[in-house]
Amino acid sequence: MKQQKFKAQIQTKRLILKGRETATFEMATAFSNLIQQNIKFLRKWIGFAWQENTPEISYRKCYKSSQLWHELKEADYNIFLKNGELIGQINMKDVDYKTASGEIGYYMAEKYTGKGYMTEAILALETEFFKRGINRIQICTDKDNIPSVNLAKRCGYKLDGIMRDDSLAASGKGLRSTAIYSKLRAEWQKEQKKK
After folding, report:
1. Rounded to an integer, what distance in angstroms lies between the CA atom of residue 51 and that of residue 61?
2. In the beta sheet, which residues pair with residue 184?
3. CA 21, 185, 190: angle at the middle one, nearest 5?
4. 2, part of any domain
5. pLDDT tens sequence across 27-63
6. Given a cut of 80, is residue 195 above it in pLDDT?
7. Residue 138 belongs to domain spanning
């Protein structure tokens, strides 16, 4: 897979995915607020929701994200509705150019779940990267996170396996088992021919 600049913006029928090319305090504050407003929901499955989250801390994370963007290692996108409302985040992380692989990570405000927005975002992001020549994309989730498991399946990802008690639970207390789902470029191409 050839290294090339990430696409700055990806549009779908209902969404705009805007790349984190630069970090701004305004963006950091918006994410800090989004996380704080959804803290109880996010803490079920996401470890960073248990950490202190201020606009300053969020800015440092956004800045690190923009560095990884320019190094072509991670493509973070803010998810907006077409009306400009921020509803979540999605990324292609751990991009490996030698094996042409990467991993999709995501989260969304609770009130927007169950409406197909994340399905739309995942399919748009995978399309962008499969067109670039990526061969394998994976989604890793706590095996007990049924909404995330169902999302991976709905997007056509196949279960590779479950790593038992492989990492800390989101709360940092106890262990979780990680389910790994993946999709190959050849599978994506077959899906495209059916459309």
Report:
1. 12
2. 136
3. 125
4. no
5. 899 989 999 999 999 999 988 888 888 889 889 999 9
6. no
7. 9-194
